[in-house]
Amino acid sequence: MQYTDEFKSMVAAFMRLPTEFPNVRPASVAQFILESGRGSSLLAREHRNFAGMKWRPEMAGVATKKLVIAPSETADFCSFESLEKFAEGYWIFLNRAPYEGWKAHADDPYDFIGFVGRIWAADPAYTEKVQNLIGEAEALIATLREPHVHTDGAPCCGGMIDPPEPMAHREKPAVRWDPSPFNWSRGGTRIDTVVMHYTTSRNLQGTIDWFKSPNNIHKTAAHYVIGRDGTIVQMVKDADACTHGNSQNRRSIGIEHSAAPGDPMTEPQERASVALVRWLMQEYAIAPERVIGHKCAPRATSCPGDLFAAYGATSASDCAAVTRAIQTWVRERVLAEGVIA
Ligand SMILES: [Zn+2]
Ligand SMILES: [Zn+2]
Asked: Who is most buried in 18, 124, 231, 326, counting CB within 10 A?
């Protein structure tokens, strides 16, 4: 099914808007699919009206009146200046007198459209057409819920529907400061990304020495290196950039984990990594989907190796599989342990 990009953004905006009646949403999205031709209609493209809503005076707070020559008829329709206004407008439209009683049918999307459909449209087959699209609507909603990263380094589109739960405030975990000379200015770029690496060696001191060595001609470094025993060594100030993640250097914090090829994280190392990533996300308001693997920087590299093997990615995995594994790790470890009860 082909949706316009704006259609998907609209569904995300609609899902983000809180409602007492979440079970209605798949039926509403099915209406939007049908009414707007998956976002392709003139009303959708020019007026952000994805539901064929005619102008009604109650809509004055969220929409303007526009005479539109639509395929169905020439009439006054609602024109919305933003997707958020459209989402809000849908509920206002529904809460008008003609639909009174819909809340008694709000537990089930099929029941809901069974009640609303015959009022919404003159077409006697409208209800059945919408009901046939509820499965598609549910699949689209599920797709938009999946975390995702942008491998081209584009800023995040905010594609996640559910905002992350607020995290309990955490202090920065204890670090040992052992500075590397290989750092440079971010040039004003905001920190919004964490890049996860492995060192290909279990020797923490070896990595520290390398990030200070005159033989390191590419002057590579990382902000943090986490040893097998959970020791965290900070080598570059967060405020500065360093060379670890290609296109992501200016915007990111780099975390190295001591690990030989094939090694997953040790338990103390993972605890330290979880605590550090959680603190970084909190401190710099980093979105969960912006914790990425070096592979997605993007770069042909085995990094981050087998650190996330328990979450489904190995050194042989591609960026997409590494992303899924890291996102699972963030959800199950970093966010789960930090949520306010
Ligand atoms: Zn995004
Ligand atoms: Zn790396």
From this structure: 326
How much distance in Å is there from the Cα of 249 to the middle of ligand 1? 19
pLDDT tens by residue, 166-216: 456 678 999 999 999 999 999 999 999 999 999 999 999 999 999 999 999
Q: Is the dihedral of CA 76, 77, 78, 80 positive or negative?
A: negative
Place of tokens 């042989």: 316
> How many residues are recorded in the chain?
341
Q: Would you state the pLDDT for residue 310? A: 95
The full set of domains in the chain, from first to last, is: 5-145 (1.10.530.10), 176-338 (3.40.80.10)
For residue 101, with 0-12 CB atoms within 10 Å meaning exposed, 13-18 middle and 19 or more buried, which class applies? exposed
Instruction: Give the distance (Å) from ligand 1 centre to CA of residue 245.
Output: 19
Calpha distance 317→320 (Å, rounded)? 8
Distance 209 CA to ligand 2 centre (A): 17
